[in-house]
Amino acid sequence: MKKLLMFMLLLMSLAVSAETGDSLMTVDWNSIKAEVEANPQRVQNLVDEFINVDSDLTMTAKDRILAVYGRTYLNNGSDMSIEIDMMKVRRDGKFEEAATIADRVLAKNPLNTNALISKIYYFRKLSGSDPDKEWMTSDSLKVYSVRLSRILDTIFMTGDGSKEHPFSVTSVGDEYNFVNFFLGILKINGQMMIEKTDRLILGDTSEVYTSPDIYFDIKRVLELEAGLF
User: Fold this and answer.
1) Is 1 exposed, middle or buried (0-12, 13-18, 19+ CB in 10 A)?
2) Which segment of the chain is annotated as a signal peptide (predicted)?
3) How far apart are CA 69 and CA 193, in angstroms?
4) What is the DSSP letter of 196?
5) DSSP code of 178?
6) Is 181 helix (H, G, I), strand (E, B) or coil?
7) Nearest to 27 by CA among 226, 216, 224
8) Is residue 92 scored above 90 in pLDDT?
């Protein structure tokens, strides 16, 4: 099931990337924080537009980045403790329970990639176990899959994976979900933190990414985790 999901999202993400281009848009965390503090409603409006999958996404790259990364300054990690509970039951194979908890996570942060994947896992499992319910799940799959694809594609705009130009993320889950479902690489051999970046050592490559390792800017992740613990 994971490979099927990876393939589906990979195709969707590549299609979006082809439309938006691949120029780097480095995340300026200080500017984003200042914009959120000055205009929180504008940022929330951008988030609402970003997650509306019933219309084509016409936002500029700058506004997409403000929505995805600025959202963390609106909720300040209030979803993180619930996410921990969700991931625990998901690892135990309790996908329906994980999907229920995911609703609570998404109520706090509609851009939480782990929660979106929990919903996708559940609906794919539901449609696979009972073909008669496939019509009931197709719309839900579209909502969560397109939203996830947009987030991962926005992450792709922010770097190239090198130490000099790491991809910016707002959670550790973003790192693994980006590698698995956007780059199409399932095997990760190791992880190490180097100052305010994470380096993942990859056990495979793909047509999208051929380097043996990948770097992520985790400045905001560290701030949010410090607030949690």
Assistant:
1) exposed
2) 1-18
3) 21
4) T
5) I
6) helix
7) 216
8) yes
3-class state of residue 167 by DSSP: strand
Please tell me the distance from the alpha carbon of residue 211 to that of residue 107, in angstroms, as a whole number. Answer: 36
Alpha helices by DSSP H, the chain:
2-20, 29-38, 40-50, 61-75, 80-91, 95-108, 113-129, 134-157, 172-177, 219-228
**Whether 12 contacts 20, CB under 8 Å:** no
* CA–CA dist 186, 106 (Å, integer): 25
Whether the CB-CB separation of 164 and 37 falls below 8 Å is answered with no
Taking the C-alpha atoms of residue 219 and residue 200, their distance in angstroms, rounded to an integer, is 16
Helix (H, G, I), strand (E, B), or coil: what is residue 191?
strand
Instruction: Phi first, then psi: give them for residue 171, nearest 5 degrees.
Output: -160, 160
Question: Measuring CA to CA, which residue among 151, 135, 157 is closest to residue 61?
Answer: 157
In contact, 201 and 212? CB cutoff 8 Å: yes
pLDDT in tens, 5-55: 554 555 455 444 544 445 789 999 999 999 999 999 999 999 999 999 887
Contact 201, 216 (CB under 8 A): no
Tokens of residue 224, six digits: 């949010």
Give, to the nearest 10 degrees, the angle between helix 113-129 and helix 134-157: 150
DSSP strand pairing (188-194 vs 167-168): unpaired
Contact call for residues 108 and 114 (beta carbons, < 8 A): no
